[in-house]
Amino acid sequence: MTRGKPKNGILVFTGNSNPDLAKAICAYLKLAVGSADVGRFSEGEIRLKVNDDVRGQDVFVIQSTSPPANDNLMELLIFLDALRRSSASRITAVMPYYGYARQDRKDQPRVPITAKLVANLLVGAGAQRVLSMDMHAGQIQGFFDIPVDHLYAAPVFINYFKRPQFKNLVVVSPDVGGIKMARAFAKRLHAELAIVDKRRVSDEEAEVMNLLGEVRGRTAVIVDDIVATGGSLCEAAHALKKHGAQDIYAAVTHPVLSGPAMERIAKAPLQQLVVTDTIPLGPGRRHRKIKVLSVAPLLGEAIRRIHLEESVSSLFV
Fold first, then answer.
1. CA 235, CA 172: separation in Å to the nearest integer?
2. pLDDT tens digit string along 296-311?
3. What is the pLDDT of residue 206?
4. What is the DSSP letter of 153?
5. C-alpha 69: how far from chain center
6. Which of 69, 92, 101, 305 lies deepest, with the highest CB count within 10 Å?
7. Annotated catalytic, 198?
8. Domain assignments of the chain as residue spans, ordered by start
9. What angle do CA 125, 126, 127 make, to 5 degrees?
10. Do 174 and 199 meet the contact criterion of CB atoms below 8 Å apart?
11. Which is nearest to 63 in space by CA: 33, 97, 23?
């Protein structure tokens, strides 16, 4: 690893959302995780104390706002406030999973735009930069008036699916909105592209209407950013099987896996659901079909480059 001379020292902290990922990132950076006490008062309020001296330091806080989303978001906001009040030179919120992102526009009367609300909260609490991965909607970057580095997990998935056992691939977008992402995968895997045309029945269910593209006899890879209840993913898998796909895989960055997701995945005609460690798989969310790939080196390299004021753009692939 080429190292320049930083203007300030670097410190990396983590809340309780994903400490294993933070440890892996720090191992890549050859750093120890910063010392902080993140607990609760007796009534449940978050109690936090940063033990390391952060004055004049370049500080990164790693915290996904994954379930329990409210607790993890408040931990992050309180962490940022503590660092701001402790005179850190620069504070970067590293959010491998940016929660509250699915409400990113007013598509119905009297609904909030929570993605923008969270952006306002982060900046108000003290964030001077944000590093995230596969945000649910690209326009979320524009909700901030501070620098945002938006990474993609695609290189990690592409390296996995370039293995010799994956032959005759077709990359599948589970809906029209994911075509851009699927096309990028298909181009780098030298694969064909297919699209599932679906109609959303509710927030948790979708009905497949048509399949655009040829999948018969091929190995299909469904690509998406989030798997929550698994409704769209599993409906797409059933549609692909119905249209003659030989083997069906899924590559999804953020494994929220809520509600009936695990039951649906167990019953779906999926050989494997490949996810990343932006969200930890806790008890009850592990299955023989689920394969976890680490994005720690990707995030670690981005943190290193940000700290050394080097270009991060080559990681945006």
1. 13
2. 999 999 999 999 999 8
3. 56
4. S
5. 14
6. 92
7. yes
8. 10-152+296-315, 154-293
9. 110
10. no
11. 97
Strands, E assignment, 41-86? 46-50, 58-62
| pTM of structure | 0.92
pLDDT (0 to 100) of residue 208: 57
State the pLDDT at residue 187: 94
Interatomic CA distance for residues 123 and 118, integer angstroms: 9
**HSE toward the beta carbon, residue 58, CA cutoff 13 A:** 14
pLDDT tens readout for residues 152-175:
999 999 999 999 999 999 999 988
Tokens encoding 141: 């970057």
Domain 10-152+296-315: assigned CATH number: 3.40.50.2020
Q: Which residues contact 168 (CB under 8 A, 6 or more apart)?
A: 217, 218, 219, 246
Look up residue 238 and give its two tokens: 């059933």
188 vs 72: CA distance, rounded Å: 35
Q: Domain 154-293: give its CATH architecture.
A: 3-Layer(aba) Sandwich (3.40)
CB atoms within 10 A of CB 207: 12
Q: Is 75 left (phi over 0), alpha (psi -120 to 50) or beta?
A: alpha
Distance CA(251)–CA(276), nearest Å, equals 9
Amino acid at 87: S
3 confidence band (pLDDT: 50, 70, 90)? very low
Find the largest Cα–Cα distance for the chain: 61
Tokens of 170: 């077709």
Separation of alpha carbons 207 and 227, rounded Å: 16
Burial letters 219-239, b for 16+ CB under 10 A, else e:
bbbbbbbbbbbbbbbbbbbbb
Q: Which of 167, 198, 267, 291 is catalytic?
A: 198
Reported as a single tens digit per residue, the pLDDT across 53-101 is 999 999 999 999 999 999 999 999 999 999 999 999 999 999 999 999 9
